């Protein structure tokens, strides 16, 4: 276990996988046996439980290089353990109906996230790098994480109005901006390292447009549910912004080399996941127009884009930082494609409201992540295969 303390990504990825598998088990059991599904908790806890620990693993591995600073490893174990324990407490409390303990769990998650956000802000201040745009974009998104977790805490304390804010902020002010920032910086970089004669294209104006659009959707989603005139205006804004984003992501996916990326499976995994975004926001626009889509948009975003991108990025970082070849074998490639299938099934289930299809998708999603966890967890518990530190 001492290997987990050798580098931040080891601990954060390890705890992230354990949290992810725990959340999947909790939800799968509820789908099979619960008389009444805890859907509101599921809608908040899954985004705030599945992704943040992995985000920290990437941020404090690649981020200091972006900023050209040497990051202290002090407190990363405390911060990671605190966030993880918060997730566990929420799960335990929800299972046994202990609302005060659930509140404590969300409070621990919030406190840990405040601490890591301050730590990231200090690194930005200490950095002498001339280009801090991606780092600052990450910081703004991490502040969005604080807002979303604060709303989740308020909801756990009894404020029903805070649920919609927590859900919208968690996806569109927190997670999506982080994913977009990382993709904007890293996808062209990774692609240029693999493909010959590749022309890197990643204007900062493009990233700014994405982030402004994402935050706009967050607040339009919060205010667009009460049936008032303001609600109608918010829905109109969502139609326009989501449509523009859908076209932007489709164009970017093409310009970044989606089809050429299949020359290398590990690279193709990143590009295939990014391609989901044009579908996600097409669904978002259709939903805002009044077409009944159920939770199709949310699951296309969370499962189609974020979960598959998580597998692609974490696999690449884990291979690279453990001295392994940057190569996706048949096993990883098959698991990755199966995750896309699970996402497609869940999106179709949202349109059809089919319980059996939801259970099939959840079962496939769980099976894929169990297999992926079995592949990845040993990496974090063993020394690098090349003997290098880290």
From TrEMBL:
UniProt xrefs under Pfam families: NnrS
Coiled coil: none
Species whose genome carries this gene: Undibacterium cyanobacteriorum
Domain of life: Bacteria
Cross-referenced InterPro entries: NnrS (IPR010266)
Protein name per Swiss-Prot or TrEMBL: NnrS family protein
Keyword Thylakoid in record: no
The keyword Transmembrane helix belongs to this UniProt entry's keyword annotation: yes
Keywords (A to Z) from UniProt: Membrane, Transmembrane, Transmembrane helix
Chain ranges passing through the membrane: 12-29, 41-64, 76-97, 103-123, 135-157, 169-192, 204-224, 236-254, 266-286, 298-319, 331-351, 363-381
């Amino acid at each position: 276990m001492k290997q987990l303390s050798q580098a931040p990504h080891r601990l954060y990825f390890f705890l992230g996988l354990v949290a992810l598998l725990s959340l999947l088990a909790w939800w799968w059991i509820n789908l099979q046996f619960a008389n009444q599904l805890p859907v509101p908790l599921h809608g908040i806890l899954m985004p705030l439980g599945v992704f943040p620990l992995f985000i920290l693993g990437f941020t404090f591995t690649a981020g200091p290089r972006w900023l050209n600073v040497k990051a202290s490893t002090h407190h990363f174990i405390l911060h990671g353990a605190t966030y993880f324990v918060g997730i566990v407490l929420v799960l335990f409390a929800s299972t046994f109906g202990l609302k005060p303990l659930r509140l404590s769990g969300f409070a621990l998650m919030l406190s840990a996230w405040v601490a890591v956000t301050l730590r990231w802000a200090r690194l930005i201040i200490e950095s002498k790098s001339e280009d801090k745009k991606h780092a600052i974009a990450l910081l703004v998104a991490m502040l969005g994480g604080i807002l979303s977790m604060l709303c989740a805490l308020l909801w756990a304390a009894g404020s029903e109005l805070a649920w919609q804010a927590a859900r919208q902020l968690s996806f569109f002010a927190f997670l999506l901006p982080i994913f977009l920032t990382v993709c904007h910086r890293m996808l062209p970089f990774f692609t240029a390292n693999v493909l010959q004669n590749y022309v890197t294209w990643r204007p900062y104006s493009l990233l700014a447009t994405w982030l402004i659009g994402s935050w706009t959707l967050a607040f339009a989603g919060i205010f667009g549910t009460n049936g008032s005139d303001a609600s109608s205006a918010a829905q109109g804004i969502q139609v326009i912004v989501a449509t523009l984003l859908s076209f932007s992501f489709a164009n970017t996916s093409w310009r970044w080399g989606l089809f050429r990326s299949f020359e290398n499976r590990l690279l193709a995994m990143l590009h295939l996941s990014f391609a989901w975004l044009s579908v996600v926001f097409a669904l978002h626009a259709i939903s805002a127009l009044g077409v009944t889509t159920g939770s199709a948009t949310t699951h296309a975003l969370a499962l189609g884009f974020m979960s598959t991108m998580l597998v692609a990025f974490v696999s690449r970082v884990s291979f690279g930082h453990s001295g392994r070849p940057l190569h996706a074998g048949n096993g990883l490639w098959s698991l990755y494609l199966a995750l896309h299938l699970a996402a497609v099934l869940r999106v179709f289930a949202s349109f059809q409201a089919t319980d059996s299809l939801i259970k099939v998708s959840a079962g496939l999603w769980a099976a894929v992540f169990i297999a992926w966890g079995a592949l990845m967890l040993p990496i974090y518990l063993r020394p690098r295969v090349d003997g290098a530190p880290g």
